[in-house]
Amino acid sequence: MNISNISNISNICNFCSKEFTNKVTLTRHQKTTKSCLELQGKNENNIECENCKKLLAIRSYKHHKENCDIIFKNSKKEKEDKMLLEKLQDKNKLLEKQNKKLKIDLEDCREKTKTEITQFKTTILLLEKQNEKLQTINTNVMMKLAEKTSTVNNTNNTNNVVINTNQLTNEVLRQCANTFHMDHAKGINGIAKHLTTSLEEHITCTDPSRNIFKYTNEKDEEIIDQNLEILLPQYLTAVKDRNDFLYKEVFDYFKKNNVSLNVQTDYS
After folding, report:
1. CB-based contacts of 195, cutoff 8 Å, min separation 6
2. Which terminal Cβ of the chain has fewer Cβ within 10 Å, N or C?
3. pLDDT by residue (tens digit) across 198-227?
4. CB–CB of 167/218 below 8 Å?
5. Domains in the chain: ranges and CATH
6. What tens digit of pLDDT does each residue of 71-83 get?
């Protein structure tokens, strides 16, 4: 028996023993050939539609099959369209959820931006006030140092001003901070007084008309400082921690003794 004979055996009808060239022809034969259907125990009314599985007569099967194919095709398309619609609806729900979250995030961002702008404006106003205070401190310091220089000049009856040789080091500034107390912290005049008295041995005004000061740093370098623009920030940095410590003590006292808000505000 060759290979072709073996292949043909599988295409022989089990009911009428007829041989067919392929499986498709065999299947159609078994479903439509009247003599084979009779051998299968089926009559004219027992042909099954492969789409809807109904049993039909041979004479009506072809017409039914044509219509049923259309219906089956449409039904299949409806199912596919329904699945696609469901996917689109799910995607739309996801997009709506994401859009809602974006709106919330955007609103939060707007509120945060408003807050930051308000804080920024407040900081600018605070810096402007601090700058005004620094300018006032600077003016008071220069006036006091200029008065000292004028006194020295009058005493020596000369236009030349002797430059102090005491070095103005970081250690001097730290010691200066230790002498800073509450009377100094009460106002600008107190700060100016403390700076002039604590550093008078280390700094000299050499030109009162132009507010020029000279002092020697810890590297033994002579510093020419107009309007004290170099020294004043160093001094304020040195006394800052001490000032904060004093204010904490004061406001702890206010809180403990129920001092009125007006008094606290005025003091601040």
Report:
1. 137, 141, 176, 232, 235
2. N
3. 777 888 888 877 888 888 888 888 888 888
4. yes
5. 3-63 (3.30.160), 139-267 (no CATH)
6. 888 888 888 888 8
